[in-house]
Amino acid sequence: TDEEKKEYIEIIREETEELAVVVKRLFELAKMEQNMFIIDKQMVRFEQLIHTITERVRPAFEEKNIVFSVSCPDHVLANVDPERIQQVLLNVLDNAKKHTPSGNRISMEVSESKHNIITVISDEGEGIPEEDLPYIFERLYRVEKSRSRKSGGTGLGLAIAKEIVESHGGTMEAKSKLGIGSSFVITLPRGENIE
Ligand code: ATP
Ligand code: MG
Fold first, then answer.
1. How far is the CA of 139 from the centre of ligand 2 (A)?
2. What pTM did the predictor assign?
3. Which ligand neighbours the alpha carbon of 126 most closely?
């Protein structure tokens, strides 16, 4: 019927758009691996970067009734590509939001050590099964195998995030307990201190 035709064309259109996103991201990853990817490092105040991201995600968190808390010390300087690091943090926060039920908490806490800036993003979400945890940074890996429309996602977000962090000389790791929550630890080398 015409009705069905319309419906299927809509599905095909959506799938095509999604594929286009996947292809674009795979290209990004391939470029990163060949070091053809430009990281434009600048001295940035880390709290500024955190503030920008917080403002960007807050509406979506509020909409889902998620309690979002952020802490970051003042005067931390980072020598990073701000756009890329924002992309990393947004990716992790987006994952946290997707996997955390309404009413629960998500936090982003920044601390510094002698050589590093450590950002920990924790959620009170569904958690990641122990057997899946070693693979979540692999490209196209998703815990929920059926790519249901609802949970969306291509399984590339964390692979790209890790590649970006590592090309800054940093590290990225995940800890998780099923049914309790997950936390992602992003370590970046710090810049000079301002004061
Ligand atoms: P994309 O980010 O490309 O849109 P995605 O979110 O599915 O898709 P990744 O960000 O790479 O892909 O994450 C990989 C998988 O790890 C997710 O599909 C999800 O199963 C699991 N995961 C990531 N973060 C969390 C989290 N905070 N809580 C529970 N599971 C998570
Ligand atoms: Mg993701």
1. 11
2. 0.88
3. 1
Burial class of residue 21 in the structure, from the number of CB atoms within 10 Å of its CB (0-12 exposed, 13-18 middle, 19+ buried): exposed
Please give the Cα distance from 116 to 105 (Å, whole number): 26
Q: Determine which residue's CA is closest to atom 16 belonging to ligand 1.
A: 136
Q: Determine the longest span between alpha carbons in the chain, in angstroms.
A: 71
CA-nearest residue for atom 26, ligand 1, is 96
Read off φ and ψ for residue 77, nearest 5 degrees: -100, 135
Beta-bridge mates of residue 119: 110, 186
Which of 7-16, 17-26, 169-178 has the lowest average pLDDT?
17-26
Distance CA 152, CA 29 (A): 20
Ligand of minimum distance to the alpha carbon of 176? 1
154's tokens: 């291509």
Distance 142 CA to ligand 1 centre (A): 6
Q: What is the pLDDT of residues 137-168, one digit of tens each?
A: 998 888 887 655 555 678 889 999 999 999 99
CA of 73 to the centre of ligand 1 (A): 28
Cα–Cα distance between 142 and 163 in angstroms, integer?
17
